[in-house]
Fold:
Amino acid sequence: MNNHQGNQERFSLHGQWSSRMTFILAVTGSAIGLGNIWKFPYIAGDNGGGAFVLIYLICIFVIGFPIMVSEIMIGRKGRRNPITSMKILGLEEQGSENWKWVGLIGLMAGFIILSYYSVIAGWTLHYFKMSLLGELSNLNSESVQTIFGELTGSAITQLMYHTAFMAITVAIIAKGIKDGLERAVKLMMPGLLFILIVLLFYSILQGDFMAGVNFLLMPDFTKITSQSVLAAMGQAFFTLSLGMGCIVMYGAYLPKNESIIGTTTTIIFCDTIIALLAGLVIFPIVFQFGLKPTDGPGLIFLTLPLAFNEITGGYIFSGLFFILLAFAAITSALSLLEPSVAWMIENKNYSRGKSALIIGVLIWLLGFLSIFSFNILSGFTFWKGTLFDNFDYLASNILLPLSGLLFTIFASWIMKKENSIEELSDVSRRVYKLWRFGARYIAPIGVILVFLNAIGII
Ligand code: PFF
Structure:
């Protein structure tokens, strides 16, 4: 591979997106996932609602935006998996191979995230099946706990769904960019939006809508602690799929003439709207039925079945809700798997199918540890809690911000100015300068301050 191709364009070995729209759909599909619908509401609930949401929005715009632009830029310039792209660009820009480690941190984070992401996605499949079979009826607050407890208590049931979810993800990735990824997102993303809108009407009509709106949008700053600021930033990284190379990877398939800033704006807008909509679906229902917003990771699995169950025809809505979650999870899981698979194809010369299978099996095996942390290993706790808690904390709050920080430093400090200008040539000087300022100063300082604050130094 020629490392000194200068400004000549490299081409991806795996093809390109067939249109700007499919790129936007794929990245939005990556961004919108369990993070928006499962994680955002419970973290917002745990951290007091409105004030958290405000900090989260600030993190999205001042930290997330410049970093996403940086990652797409690196991907499109490198045209390889994140490790190789960083290696090639590091050599071109600075004569150093060491930047590849940043790509590696990202890939590791993706590996870890997908291992537990698939377990939670498996829960949604289980709840979908139960809704369809009418098993989520005649519930009360004890029986929802029992159903959830039975699921998390059973390693076998979770294993089954985890296996099914990973199999779907591997099968789609094995088919490649156009036949696999593009087709999946074209089908699932519009479906997801449709279902969410139906559920929003349901929540407006059946829920305590104003209580939900107040909770989400009225800030109560007394609830804010340094930990909740870290949680908001971690969530901003997680929800935008930043810091793990998946945006770098998808950027590698982006044609040269597409606008990076334009697509990023659309993607961030869609992701934020969906997270807020998910909150507006969930909290009105939570309040209507006197449930608590602070139920943690179980929030949607405990509260929603109970609420839907109170209303005739509710099982249809709960079925819709859980299939919505499964769709959202699949399009995100694809982006978590693709970078490692592309790495294997490019470096080991294996076929796409074989690479997807090997990486998929490794991630599937790692997922066992998360499954066991809800049952046989639930007593095994250290640092942030169970193995599952630690995986999530390590990946979302440490690895993602760390590699996101380094990606943005690379794009704005190390990459020659003329190269980044070339990548962002469609926007005005002023917008370019704004990005560069955000990527050089605001995002790095923001990430570092939040870290120092969280570990108690400032
Ligand atoms: N953004 C996804 C979500 O919000 O569920 C999760 C995710 C996907 C995180 C891809 C990181 C990633 F690279």
User: Anything to note?
Assistant: The pocket of 4-fluoro-L-phenylalanine is lined by residues 30-31, 33-36, 110, 113, 238-239, 241, 244, 246, 332, 335-336 (CB under 6 Å). The chain has one domain: 3-454.
